[in-house]
Amino acid sequence: MTFTTDPRLGLPTVYLVDDEDVVRDALAWLLRSRRLLSEGFASAEAFEAMLATRSAGWPTSPACLLLDVRMPGTSGLVLFERLAERGLLDSRPGFCLTGHGDVPTAVAAVNRGAFDFVEKPFADNALVDRIEQAMAKSTTALLKQRDSVAVQRRLAELTERERDVMRLVIEGRPNKLIADELSISVRTVEVHRARVFEKMEVRSAVELANMLREHGGPRAS
Q1: What is each CA distance from 80 to 114, 121, 151, 169, 198, in whole angstroms?
Q2: Which of 3, 150, 170, 204 could tie 132 with a disulfide, CB 3.0–4.6 Å?
Q3: Does residue 69 contact residue 98 with C-beta atoms inside 8 Å?
Q4: Which residues, 6 or more positions from 87, have their beta carbon under 8 angstroms from its beta carbon?
Q5: In degrees rounded to 5, what are phi and psi of residue 149?
């Protein structure tokens, strides 16, 4: 497959964490040949030091990680577990780089959420194809996060009465029943309903309900 960058996001980056210079160099060269940027780290500690300098919203562009299972100091597997616990792999798929003897360990990591494992020596084209698939997954996750932030921002702009009307609208109540429950006129319901649709940037109650279901907003009871 050919991964296509999304103009709404920055350039994708592959983060390489491996204590062997030759492996990092080979991977970086391979990725450049497919027009993918990379950053290399010689240890889990070096990668975590880099993370400490980044904002909580990192990354804003598609990313994936290749972590060597066996390294001096903190192993790639321990690093993987730490990143998973912090939710940092949700939009940054993680691969485990492994030698033959570590395959069972890498398979176990996949079962715990790793995107895939890569056995050394790796097949160049197959590896980059999987990386591009990971980048596509990262892109989807980041765009969903952006959409969720936008939805929460729109919700925050609603007045308390608009939120009351919205809750009943997504339950499927007609305007007359909403007016009766809230002790307001049907005309007032119509005005609030129109404002909710305008602020939430939707055209129907179904579209509104689907948006809130997708992005964790208020739901029908």
Answers
A1: 8, 21, 31, 44, 43
A2: 3
A3: yes
A4: none
A5: -60, -40
